[in-house]
Amino acid sequence: MLDIKITKTETLKEKITSNLGFGRYFSDHMFMMDYSREKGWYDARIVPYQNLCLSPAATVFHYGAEIFEGLKAYRRADGEVQLFRPIENVKRMNNSAERLRLPQMPEEDMLQAITELVKLEKDWVPSGEGESLYIRPFLFGNDDKLGVHSIENARFVIITSPSGSYYAAGINPVKIMIETEDVRAVRGGTGYAKCGGNYAASNRAGEIAEQKGYAQVLWLDGVERKYIEEVGAMNVMFKIDGEIITPALTGSILPGITRKSCLELLRNEGYKVSERLLSIDELIEALEAGKLEEAWGCGTAAVVSPIGELFYNNKTYIVNNGKIGDVTQMLYNKLTGIQWGKTEDTYNWTLKI
Ligand SMILES: *Cc1c(COP(=O)(O)O)cnc(C)c1O
User: Fold this and answer.
1) Can you list the residues of the chain whose pLDDT is less than 70?
2) 258 within ligand 1 shell (Cβ under 6 A)
3) What is the pTM of this model?
4) 68 alpha carbon to ligand 1 midpoint, in Å?
5) Rounded distance, CA 254 to CA 275, Å?
């Protein structure tokens, strides 16, 4: 059990209720806790939302030791607030920490930090259709010396941001560019860790794709540029000739909680599901034979995001006539139903705050 010292703000912010967007507004308080090799974790506290005061020599600024998580608090119709599989985020944060040699923390402590902050910020959980309170825990190296060495000091912070529906304009299938130059991650690297560095490595391809009118890039593997990995910052799934295929977790792919939940739902519904290598050639062949029935990305932010168009080697391929497919729609309905408490949670995935 953490002993969390709470310092409440004296001036509550005005709550914005329309046009929330994503990650633009922040609640009144934040959680912070520090780590040193001698003391371990210390000084767990909830304080007014504020700027961080860090040494310009702090490790995070120079050598990129930073990891994060992303989850949501959902308001149910009965007014209660719940989280979706938060223990999975906690476990993944510790796995990411292990890869970057940042300090791990007891699972129950991290979960307590998240739940206590959300409890305090309950009024910030919006109640509009598709809205939620986005929770962003992050952890970074905080030594104030430039020598490259193992991390002795770190800080863990959680901020929360009321966010609007990802689909304010309806679920519209997106255009995706298959990236053949840059790669996001390689096996043995940090692809499976949720770290800021992976995002920095993705910036160039993402920006070029955006300039060309595509929503995201589809990443191929870093060794042969042959196997499909992820789409933007989402996992990806395809329905080819009745089989649902998602890339296997080979080390360069982020193990998404939405991915895991989709797979469990699909298997439970009796679909044929494979986690395996899927080459770009197999995908293009399926497209040309008219056997690619559906394609979608999945992640916490969008839940599922249907793919309506793929661009590869100067050719444009249309998926499912540019419309959302039945399986994609079913996954969206089931997941959002459980997350917002509209349908019974037979999987025991939700945690009421
Ligand atoms: C966070 C993330 C995902 C999706 O994970 P969820 O747990 O489903 O939100 C997928 N890919 C990358 C690169 C990510 O950072």
Assistant:
1) none
2) yes
3) 0.96
4) 11
5) 14
